[in-house]
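Before the break, one more example. Copy the sequence into your notebook; we will annotate it together after we see the structure.
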Amino acid sequence: MASPPFTPSPFTSALLAGALAGTTVDLSLYPIDTLKTRLQSSAGFYPSGGFRGIYAGVGSAVVGSAPGAALFFVTYEEVKTRLRLVRENRRDGGSLSERDTGNKWAEALEHMIAASAGEVAACAVRVPTEVVKQRAQAAQHPSSMAALRFILAQRGDIGALGVWRELYRGWGITIMREVPFTAIQFPLWEGMKAWRRLNNGRPQVSAIESGVFGSIAGAVAAGLTTPLDVLKTRMMLAKEKQSTISLFRQIWRESGPRAFVAGIGPRTVWISAGGAVFLGTYQWAYNAMTGIT
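Here is what the structure looks like once it is written out:
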């Protein structure tokens, strides 16, 4: 008697699909990310490398992509499921139309909370790799390994705690950027998927549909959160650590308000394309592992 085919749990499916999606999008769109970082650098585009060495720092992206994306999706799917169960257990009373309207708003809020929790978890991996990667991208060091060695070599001067803080420099502003970004992107993505399922009567959308919806949601979120991305990039590239408020004032004083939309074109293109690859790949892998065709 043949044994039944192995079907991974939702946790495993989210873990593996997220890891595959993160690695795929970071490697395929890395050159655009490099150009965006150099446009936002206080040193200027060409002094930071221009169009040369657009794969500088890719090593840190390779190391951080899979675990960061896996952490995000495992947390996202788990929190989303638990919030949905709580809502369903509490649902009672009211007319059918009132319950439907309430459910739509509740689902959007659940997706915001779940995505925000996922980003906080993912930043435990993402921030150190971003610090190392962006310093290599901005030509401060010849490679991500050289950037990492430089940070670790400061242990004698600033101690182990100082090295830890240097690796996690920009943690706060990264969270400030990622939480609003995902609070915009994922409810939009989930809402478009729900609309598509309602119209085609299928239990799940295809990878292509998910990719298209992810691209639209990513472009909207990217454009709206570019000022926060500029602050995050400047903080990670700065020679000395400073507060978010003082950095904001310095940029405004020295470069004016236009500096806060620096790199908006490459960022929007990169994240729009990234949303298609990231969420399309995730949906394809998730559907394949859960047996949804």
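DSSP finds eleven helices and no strands in the chain. The CA atoms of residues 35 and 51 lie 7 Å apart. Try to locate both features in your own notes.
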